[in-house]
């Protein structure tokens, strides 16, 4: 997802993962796609700065559990994109994030859903 963001024009991408092999593979793929200079890989999410857009492709439970951690890296107007969720899990995201964010777009295909959230104003 970080490589896709860079290819779509993100000025800089901070990519985190708890799996060192995933970070190594991400770096190699960023090189192959010509965007490595715009991607910072970090094993410790605490090293990432505040961002305009947070994109996550992880399971539902960690996505809900990590909300406080995510919010340390969000500005007041930051947006969120969550991928890799099942359609039936959308309500849980609404429950977990709904007090501060609104789902403004939900794209689903074959039982999977991608959610775009914006801060409540």
Characterise the protein shown here.
- The protein is α/β, with parallel strands linked by helices and 121 residues long.
- The chain has two domains: 1-47, no CATH class; 50-121, 3-Layer(aba) Sandwich (Rossmann fold), CATH 3.40.50.150.
- The protein is 31% helix and 36% strand.
- It has five helices and six strands; from the N terminus they run H-E-H-E-E-H-H-E-H-E-E.
- It has helices at residues 2-7, 20-32, 60-65, 67-71, 90-97, and strands at 13-16, 39-42, 51-56, 74-86, 101-109, 112-119.
- A four-stranded mixed β-sheet has the order 3-4-6-5, with helices on one face.
- The longest helix is centred in the first third of the chain and has 13 residues, at 20-32.
- The model has no long low-confidence stretch (mean pLDDT 96).
Spans of at least 5 consecutive residues whose pLDDT stays below 50 are: none
Helices, by number, come to 5
Subunit organisation of the chains: single chain
- State the major sheet: 4 strands, mixed
- The percent of residues in helical segments reads 25-40%
The beta-strand count equals 6
CATH topology of the largest domain: Rossmann fold
- Label the structural class: alpha/beta
Strand content: 35-45%
H-E order: HEHEEHHEHEE
Strand arrangement, largest sheet? 3-4-6-5
* CATH 2nd-level architecture of the largest domain: 3-Layer(aba) Sandwich
Q: Give the CA-CA distance, first to last residue.
A: 27 Å
Question: What overall form do the CA principal axes indicate?
Answer: globular
